[in-house]
Amino acid sequence: MPAVKETIETVESIADYEHGFITDIEMEMAPKGLSTDIVRYISAKKGEPQWMLDWRLAAYERWLTMQEPSWAMVNYPTIDFQDSYYYAAPKAKIELDSLDDLDPEILETYKKLGIPLREQEVLAGVKGAPRIAVDAVFDSVSVATTFRAELAKSGVIFCSMSEAIKEYPDLVRQYLGTVVPVTDNFYATLNSAVFSDGTFVYIPPGVRCPMELSTYFRINAADTGQFERTLIIADKGAYVSYLEGCTAPMRDENQLHAAVVELVVLDDAEIKYSTVQNWYPGDKNGVGGIYNFVTKRADCRGARSKVSWTQVETGSAVTWKYPSCILRGDESQGAFYSIAITNGHQQADTGTKMIHLGKNTRSRIVSKGISAGKSNNTYRGLVSAHAKAKGARNFTQCDSLLIGDQCGAHTVPYVEAKTPYATFEHEATTTRLSEDQLFYCRQRGLSTEDAVALLVNGFVREVLQELPMEFAVEAQKLVAISLEGSVG
Amino acid sequence: MLNINNLQVEVGGTPIIKGLTLQVPAGEVHAIMGPNGAGKSTLSYALTGRDGYEVVGGTATLNGEDLLELAPEERAAKGLFLSFQYPLEIPGVPTLTFLRTALNAQRKARDEAEISVPDFMKLSRDVAKKLGVTPEMMKRPLNVGFSGGEKKRMEIYQMALLDPRFMILDETDSGLDIDALKVVSEGVNALRGPDKGMLVITHYQRLLDHIKPDRVHVLAGGRIVDSGGPELALALEADGYDRYKDAA
Ligand SMILES: Nc1ncnc2c1ncn2[C@@H]1O[C@H](COP(=O)(O)OP(=O)(O)OP(=O)(O)O)[C@@H](O)[C@H]1O
Ligand SMILES: [Mg+2]
Question: How far apart are CA A46 and CA A87, in angstroms?
Fold first, then answer.
């Protein structure tokens, strides 16, 4: 399998963290700290209308009354929210007609990212390049959006959130905060007050989005919290597949990331949302790394609507993330496919919530957790059925793989059924990467690293298959890279 | 070809192989028989470099090269293959994916070019036909849910595909039905050759009816206690291991 071989070569070609470089571009920053003035500053910088500013300020007031949650199985030093920057924008001109106008350093950054090579080709219009539309978030401001015109032909709107606020205020006002309310949780409320930018997608009724949509997020400036806000709406009978990929350069201080993603799915529509996240996990001693507190939720509002979340989480020092589905429409379906890998001193507390409200709603959860080194990996899942959710069905499969004997895997399933007519099934396994299997592979000629990559990719195969093809290969490599040195 | 001299192996601090000497010249097939717990599998693990099988004395060379200082995958790349007494299951990894990865890893270690996908597909199909391995089996995750006999057949399939120079077969016959034994034995015989060698560990003459050994050795109490021609196996079948009790 060439992907595995490539993995090994990739592993050999990188020192520690591959994406640990910092782009030297002039930054425009807001002063450190958080106050109504900062909220006003962010809003003013982005030229937002009054309603948006009011929305932010209300969120900020609310946030002041809230407490940071402590129930997750993660430990980290207290975050000083006044010791962080909440806005950073590259000073270069950002409204572009073509790629030539892009700051060469920013282009260089994309190049260094390695992963978006394909996107580079797409950006450059190389013949035969895959048709993927990219919206790149460079720190806090969306820098380049491609294929906009072609998407527009089919009526698809794909732009930065800032633009959407100005150009499609009615759509934004109709849907923003309707899936994740401003008051939802500490991090979501903070995001509502200070969100920097993000992606907005609207697929009109009956339209199948003609290409994969993809966003690469990076966190660049030191000490800037990153607060993306993403809103995707699939109108009746629409379909879209969206991929979010993330890398962050190496930084000593821990950086806070608190994104909010809202998906709205109307009658007979479908959204596939895939995430590949390999943010800086901190060094060998557990110093530095990203704190990732994300709220992702899909509202299957329409009958027969469908959502699937697929995630490959290999990065960050601390991950707190539960992509969820509200299955409101009758016969709506939600799926959650997850690979969460922790190594070194990483901590991940992740899972999903499937809230069955409509009749004959279905959900499926496949979670593959891999822990190595001294890391801790927790699956936390809630499946609930409302009194009206007759015929609701859930199947949960939760598998943990342990590599070494200093790591931990935990499974915390919550189940609530308020109707007797719901069927919930849960299966869980925990296995240790076996010495016997490793030896068997090595006897056939594989190096230990090859063998680990092969065995682990086998373990997560069911989930990898849910990713769009071109990203599955990438994810497969990431899986191997993130476990480098975990055995032998 | 394979040269083992006064080999001593400990498992968990307990001496299991206690000074074993054995030569298998190129082109020959030698059988090893012996009571349960004699150390036959231990010998095969020590030769292939499994962790926990600690060589505390003696030497083992393959074509003059010291095996004992090599990592298991390096020994594999030198052409040493073990057909396991208890083959492992590799969930989620299709058999063909596993084998192509293994074959290319070995080729790379030997500075040979990777096999192309079409060449590999052709090779894997040809070998499968000879050994009665179905296309459906090749697509399934390696050994997962395979019956005991199917796993053994799959070991020999792997062996034929990797085309090793020295082969150790640890109780390949156990679990195989009568027809399978014939097919698999034919497959094994096809891999014999003037520059190849084999060590066939078995409890039963029926395998040796198909794979005719040049020499038969009796391993008991961690040593070779007797050696002879093919007729020795027949004698053992009749009399058992009683007469070696003291020798061990
Ligand atoms: N970890 C261990 N600690 C102590 N003794 C061990 C350990 N592992 C294996 N042994 C012992 O080593 C001896 C040799 O075992 P081995 O598997 O090599 O026997 P064998 O000749 O292959 O037997 P069989 O014909 O049943 O396959 C046995 O007595 C076994 O109990
Ligand atoms: Mg044995």
Answer: 10
Kindly report the average pLDDT of chain A as a whole number. Answer: 79
Contacts of residue B141 in chain A, CB cutoff 8 Å?
458
Q: How far apart are CA B156 and CA A349, in angstroms?
A: 44
- Give the per-residue pLDDT at A225: 56
Separation of CA B16 and ligand 1 centre (Å): 7
The finding on whether B202 has its CB within 6 A of some atom of ligand 1 is: no
Closest CA of chain A from B205, distance in Å:
28
Q: Is the pLDDT of residue A120 over 80?
A: no
N-terminal to C-terminal alpha carbon distance within chain A: 23
Residue A33 φ/ψ, nearest 5 degrees: 100, 175
A432 touches chain B (CB under 8 A): no
Q: Give the dihedral of Cα atoms A259, A260, A265, A270; nearest 10 deg.
A: 10
Taking CA atoms, A48 is separated from A45, A196, A197, A260, B203, in Å, by 8, 12, 12, 19, 83
CB contact burial B45-71 (16+ within 10 A = b; e otherwise): bbbbbbeebebeebebebeeeebeebe
CB spacing of B101 vs A439 below 8 angstroms: no
* DSSP string for residues in A219-280: --STTB-B--EEEEEE-TT-EEEEEEEEE----SS-EEE--EEEEEE-TT-EEEEEEEE---
Among candidates A326, A317, A339, which has minimal Cα distance to A299? A326
Gap from CA of B89 to ligand 1 centroid (Å):
21
Q: Is the torsion defined by CA of A45, A218, A199, A265 positive or negative?
A: negative
Place of tokens 């050999």: A12
A460 in reach of chain B (CB within 8 A): yes
pTM of the model: 0.80
DSSP states of A96-153:
-SSGGGS-HHHHHHHHHTSTTHHHHHHHHT-TT---EEEEEEETTEEEEE-SHHHHHH
Task: Name the residue among A436, A442, A459 with its Cβ closest to that of B92.
Answer: A459
What ipTM describes this predicted complex?
A: 0.96
Residue B186: strand pairing partners: none
**Higher model confidence: residue A442 or residue A160?**
A442
By C-alpha distance, which of A464, A462, A488 is closest to A476?
Answer: A464
Measured CA to CA, the distance from residue A461 to residue A446 in angstroms comes to 19
The residue among A309, A373, A302 whose CA lies nearest residue A335 is A309
State the distance from the centre of ligand 1 to the C-alpha of B39, rounded, in angstroms: 6
Helix or strand (DSSP H, E) at A427: strand A423-432
Cβ neighbours of A459 in B, within 8 Å: 91-92
Token pair 């001294």 is found at A374
Beta bridge partners of A140: none
3-state secondary structure (DSSP) of residue A293: strand
Distance, CA of A152 to chain centre: 25
The whole-angstrom separation of Cα B71 and Cα B68 is: 8
A457 touching chain B per CB within 8 A: yes
Confidence of residue A90 (pLDDT cuts 50, 70, 90): low
Q: Is the pLDDT of residue A271 over 90?
A: yes
Tokens of B24: 């298998």
Tell me which residue in B48, B89, B92 faces A443 most closely, judged by beta carbons.
B48
Total domain count, chain B: 1
Ligand number nearest CA of B45 is 1
Measured by CA distance, the residue closest to atom 16 of ligand 1 is B39
- Rounded to 5 degrees, φ, ψ at B144 are -70, 120
How far apart, in whole angstroms, are the C-alpha atoms of residue B198 and residue B210?
14
Ligand 1 pocket, B248 CB below 6 A? Answer: no
Q: What is the pLDDT of residues B176-201, one digit of tens each?
A: 999 999 999 999 999 999 999 999 99
User: Which domain range does residue B54 map to?
Assistant: 2-244
Q: How far is A394 from chain B (nearest CA, A)?
A: 23
Which residue carries 């499946």 as its tokens? A383
| Domain harbouring B224, CATH code | 3.40.50.300
